[in-house]
Backbone:
């Protein structure tokens, strides 16, 4: 067996990391617009009002808003079958609770999806990719407030009705489990949840230092589950051909040692970090160990027994399971081991693996393991890898080229691992690598952490003319897609 003939090869971006044009055509402020850039060792900082003296990476990003036709043409040249992007909620409802949608925002995404269709590229649309309107954060405390469910539903139904003949594949929330993995940072990015003290702050706050209340976090996450399920149900009613996916941030974990305590700790963390959200959205119910997990966090989880919410979760299960995968790490009960960076997390270093410049441990076998494990857990559910890639400091040569063989060397064994999983029966429907064009890093706010097949002339000081340059990996990925994953040589 090889990849299916209709396998969805492509790439993935997020509106806040590529579009720029942050107040153009009536767009309102959203969470990323309030985040100042950082670096590997200096976390991004947050300020609850715009500081005109600071540089905000997302405000211009790589200006996809004004370059989308050029960029989609480049994606088509590579042979994309699918393009994952997001709709910025604040472009459609600038404050999140507006009476009517912003027509200019709706028209932009009309034009974007039309451009994709022009090249027979299937849009895969994330409805909330860390892009909660800022007004919802400050006035409603994000998804901690049940009213935000209604605001979200008004927004997504507007999108479903408008784009029902242009978009088939939808993801209600990006990396919904990230709310459980990074305390205050996850609260803000995923749930739009901030404590009053941080909202009123006059000083910049590192996102890693934002206040965190587990009770509020899990209440907000439950409300997000309900919002997602209601969105799935509404979407299926508007267009029965719509397909919805959960989206989980997946970083494979291994027990660091054969100590049974490490094994049990690994199993517990695997359940909590990944299976918890997956089970709710794929199976439509909380797992049997959920109450024990809530007790560990000191959370009163009365919401888990709400009969109306139980029914909603069951009626709004997703159609496929999508996930991001970049790296793996180890789990141990020993606090005194060497740590390594992951996707906005720190875990024990695996001595058998090499790492990227940002400390993410490179592990193609972990992707194979993850695909097999997910198929075991959700045997009837198609899978899709919607983020995977290597962030690196690319260098332009004197003749204006980028020779990024290290990126190809990362991607090749990951695609081979995918193929091996398909040969072993995994129902894998697509692969959209992150990101096909350079963009702003969500974790650090950097431009120099580049992922793309397409170089964008933009730096961490806000300099550059936004010109696009094809890297060596551009031509390699084009060959990969043309051969349906068979020709991976470079």
Residues:
């Amino acid at each position: 067996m090889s990849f299916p003939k209709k396998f969805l090869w492509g790439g993935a971006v997020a509106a806040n990391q590529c579009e720029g044009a942050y107040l153009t055509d009536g767009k309102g402020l959203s969470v990323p617009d309030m985040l100042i850039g950082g670096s590997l060792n200096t976390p991004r900082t947050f300020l609850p009002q715009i500081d005109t003296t600071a540089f905000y990476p997302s405000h211009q990003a790589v200006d996809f808003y004004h370059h989308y036709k050029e960029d989609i043409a480049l994606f088509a040249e590579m042979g994309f079958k699918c393009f994952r992007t997001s709709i910025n909620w604040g472009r459609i409802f600038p404050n999140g609770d507006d009476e009517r949608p912003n027509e200019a925002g709706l028209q932009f995404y009309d034009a974007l999806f039309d451009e994709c269709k022009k090249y027979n590229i299937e849009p895969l649309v994330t409805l909330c990719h860390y892009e909660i309107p800022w007004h919802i954060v400050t006035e409603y405390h994000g998804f901690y407030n049940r009213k935000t469910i209604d605001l979200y539903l008004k927004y997504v139904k507007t999108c479903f009705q408008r784009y029902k003949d242009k978009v088939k594949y939808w993801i209600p929330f990006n990396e919904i489990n990230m709310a459980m993995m990074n305390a205050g940072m996850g609260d803000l990015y995923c749930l739009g949840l901030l404590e009053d003290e941080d909202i009123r702050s006059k000083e910049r706050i590192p996102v890693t230092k934002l206040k965190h209340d587990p009770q509020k976090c899990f209440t907000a996450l439950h409300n997000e589950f309900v919002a997602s399920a209601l969105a799935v149900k509404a979407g299926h009613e508007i267009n029965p051909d719509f397909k919805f996916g959960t989206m989980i941030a997946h970083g494979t974990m291994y027990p660091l040692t054969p100590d049974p305590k490490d094994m049990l700790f690994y199993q517990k963390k695997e359940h909590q970090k990944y299976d918890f959200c997956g089970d709710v959205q794929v199976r439509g119910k909380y797992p049997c160990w959920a109450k024990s997990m809530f007790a560990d966090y000191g959370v009163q989880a009365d919401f888990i027994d709400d009969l109306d919410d139980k029914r909603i979760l069951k009626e709004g299960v997703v159609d496929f399971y999508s996930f991001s995968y970049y790296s793996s790490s180890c789990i141990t009960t020993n606090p005194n081991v060497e740590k390594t960076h992951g996707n906005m997390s720190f875990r024990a270093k695996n001595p058998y693996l090499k790492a990227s410049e940002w400390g993410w441990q490179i592990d193609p076998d972990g992707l194979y393991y993850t695909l097999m494990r997910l198929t075991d857990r959700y045997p009837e559910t198609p899978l899709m890898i919607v983020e995977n890639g290597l962030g690196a400091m690319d260098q332009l040569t004197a003749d204006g080229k980028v020779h990024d063989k290290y990126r190809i060397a990362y991607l090749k064994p990951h695609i081979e691992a995918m193929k091996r999983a398909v040969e072993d029966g995994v129902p894998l429907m697509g692969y959209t690598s992150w990101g096909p064009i350079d963009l702003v890093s969500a974790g650090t706010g950097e431009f120099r952490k580049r992922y793309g097949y397409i170089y964008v002339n933009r730096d961490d000081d806000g300099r550059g003319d936004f010109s696009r340059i094809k890297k060596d990996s551009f031509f390699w990925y084009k060959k990969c897609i043309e051969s349906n994953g068979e020709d991976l040589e470079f």
